[in-house]
């Protein structure tokens, strides 16, 4: 995804590089979860009450994929010389850091280890972080006549203003933003009134998540900015979890592992919606690259995790990718996942952006699902001023905020029903293709479609 950020926003300035000590990280695939101290009869021990309520509301149960990875297995791997980096319960994998590849190969002698795969090699250098970052913030604004300020068209192209005027602005909903860092978001006034439920860095737990890459800042602003007549996002009253899974120093498969754990964390704390404007098909080691035949919703670890989210009651909204004019051209995992909303980019007049990645998946599913404004998107700059950026990275959160408001308005919908009404509200719903998908959605139309699905016992609106 680092390469994707570079295409959109430019290379990070770097005048000094710091050497790193050589080590390796391996993904270890386990055979089972026995023995375990956890039980499906006691889900409150590993899922929050909010997470359980979300599932109950959608008629979803807890299953073996929800059980944490076996602690005894992890202990055995540590005894052989590994250091636990992270573990994924949905995929039943762990990532172990080792000083030599030979130690990782010894893991295969254990009866509960199915496979090992190298997913990270320590880079020769790492990018330094900016000191005194807060001094960059100016927060200089000019007000406009329109309530949404510079964001007006990217909201109104979907009739999102109608949903907001009806009182649905995201209140009571929680969105997890899984990204690369949220540079200066803690001191920029666009977010002064935003409810941040928590932050977590899955790459480096000791880092300052507000001192990392600025990509997440810009993504967040599309939804959460709340400065009337300057910039108002698409879900200004939602609450947010800010999660970092992108390692800005390298492009290696372990970032998929970080992402998998991030979405599992989001599930465990009870979020409703996840936005991710990250994607991976090309890595520092070309042998790890994906091909078109891998776009099946399950080959990529990230796509496999995203495909599970709907069965946990979570809606995932993700960017399609920015390879439309590149040799790759296709959507970027996890955009190929099942039961997610993959968002491509159009300009403010609804015309497809030439950089927006195209579908379909290898098994013939229509992708992207929908389109939103990703050309000259209004975003926050690192200095707190108005800025503009191109990319499906910004189309995705812009629509993510609106679909969150739609779900607030229609809480009886399951994830799959929510995706269906959004698709049916698109301006190309009758003739979807691999460029526009189902087209530009009309969330007010989607709201009316959703009303027809409301259980009769709840009455009519």
UniProtKB/TrEMBL annotation:
<feature type="active site" description="Charge relay system">
    <location>
        <position position="179"/>
    </location>
</feature>
<feature type="signal peptide">
    <location>
        <begin position="1"/>
        <end position="20"/>
    </location>
</feature>
<feature type="active site" description="Charge relay system">
    <location>
        <position position="215"/>
    </location>
</feature>
<keyword id="KW-0645">Protease</keyword>
<feature type="active site" description="Charge relay system">
    <location>
        <position position="393"/>
    </location>
</feature>
<feature type="domain" description="Peptidase S8/S53">
    <location>
        <begin position="170"/>
        <end position="439"/>
    </location>
</feature>
<dbReference type="InterPro" id="IPR050131">
    <property type="entry name" value="Peptidase_S8_subtilisin-like"/>
</dbReference>
<dbReference type="InterPro" id="IPR036852">
    <property type="entry name" value="Peptidase_S8/S53_dom_sf"/>
</dbReference>
<comment type="similarity">
    <text>Belongs to the peptidase S8 family.</text>
</comment>
<dbReference type="GO" id="GO:0006508">
    <property type="term" value="P:proteolysis"/>
</dbReference>
<dbReference type="InterPro" id="IPR023828">
    <property type="entry name" value="Peptidase_S8_Ser-AS"/>
</dbReference>
<dbReference type="InterPro" id="IPR017317">
    <property type="entry name" value="Pept_S8_subtilisin_bacteroid-2"/>
</dbReference>
<keyword id="KW-0732">Signal</keyword>
<dbReference type="InterPro" id="IPR000209">
    <property type="entry name" value="Peptidase_S8/S53_dom"/>
</dbReference>
<keyword id="KW-0720">Serine protease</keyword>
<keyword id="KW-0378">Hydrolase</keyword>
<protein>
    <submittedName>
        <fullName>S8 family serine peptidase</fullName>
    </submittedName>
</protein>
<dbReference type="GO" id="GO:0004252">
    <property type="term" value="F:serine-type endopeptidase activity"/>
</dbReference>
<dbReference type="Pfam" id="PF00082">
    <property type="entry name" value="Peptidase_S8"/>
</dbReference>
């Amino acid at each position: 995804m680092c390469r994707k950020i570079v295409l959109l926003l430019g290379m990070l300035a770097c005048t000094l590089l710091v050497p790193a000590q050589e080590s390796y990280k391996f993904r270890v695939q386990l055979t089972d979860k026995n023995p375990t101290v956890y039980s499906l009869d006691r889900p409150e021990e590993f899922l929050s009450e909010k997470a359980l309520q979300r599932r109950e509301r959608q008629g979803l149960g807890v299953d073996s994929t929800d059980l944490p990875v076996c602690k005894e297995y992890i202990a055995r791997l540590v005894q052989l010389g590994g250091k636990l980096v992270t573990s994924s319960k949905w995929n039943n994998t762990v990532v172990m850091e080792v000083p030599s590849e030979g130690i990782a190969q010894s893991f295969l002698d254990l009866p509960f280890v199915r496979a090992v795969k190298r997913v990270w090699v320590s880079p020769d250098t790492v990018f330094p972080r900016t000191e005194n970052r807060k001094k960059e913030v100016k927060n200089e604004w000019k007000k406009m006549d329109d309530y949404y300020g510079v964001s007006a068209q990217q909201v109104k192209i979907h009739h999102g203003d109608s949903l907001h005027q009806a009182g649905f602005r995201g209140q009571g909903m929680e969105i997890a933003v899984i990204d690369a860092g949220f540079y200066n978001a803690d001191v920029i006034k666009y977010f002064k009134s935003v409810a941040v439920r928590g932050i977590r860095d899955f790459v480096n737990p000791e880092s300052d998540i507000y001192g990392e890459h600025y990509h997440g800042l810009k993504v967040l602003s599309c939804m959460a900015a709340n400065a009337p007549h300057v910039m108002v996002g698409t879900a200004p009253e939602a609450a947010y979890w800010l999660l970092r899974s992108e390692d800005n120093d390298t492009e290696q498969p372990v970032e998929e592992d970080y992402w998998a754990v991030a979405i599992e964390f989001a599930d465990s704390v009870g979020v409703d919606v996840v936005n991710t404007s990250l994607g991976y098909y090309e890595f520092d080691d070309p042998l790890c690259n994906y091909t078109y035949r891998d776009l099946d919703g399950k080959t990529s670890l990230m796509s496999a995790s995203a495909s599970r989210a709907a069965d946990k009651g979570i809606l995932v909204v993700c960017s399609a990718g920015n390879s439309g004019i590149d040799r790759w051209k296709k959507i970027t995992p996890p955009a190929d996942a099942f039961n997610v909303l993959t968002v491509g980019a159009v300009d403010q007049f609804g015309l497809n952006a030439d950089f927006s990645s195209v579908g379909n998946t290898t098994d013939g599913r229509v992708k992207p699902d929908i389109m939103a404004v990703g050309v000259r998107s209004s975003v926050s700059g690192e200095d707190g001023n108005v800025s503009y950026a191109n990319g499906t990275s910004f189309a995705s959160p812009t629509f993510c905020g609106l679909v969150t408001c739609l779900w607030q308005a229609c809480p009886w919908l399951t994830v799959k029903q929510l995706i269906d009404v959004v698709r049916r509200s698109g301006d190309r719903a009758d003739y979807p293709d691999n460029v526009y998908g189902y087209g530009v959605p009309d969330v007010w139309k989607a709201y009316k479609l959703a009303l027809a699905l409301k259980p009769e016992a709840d009455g009519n609106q």
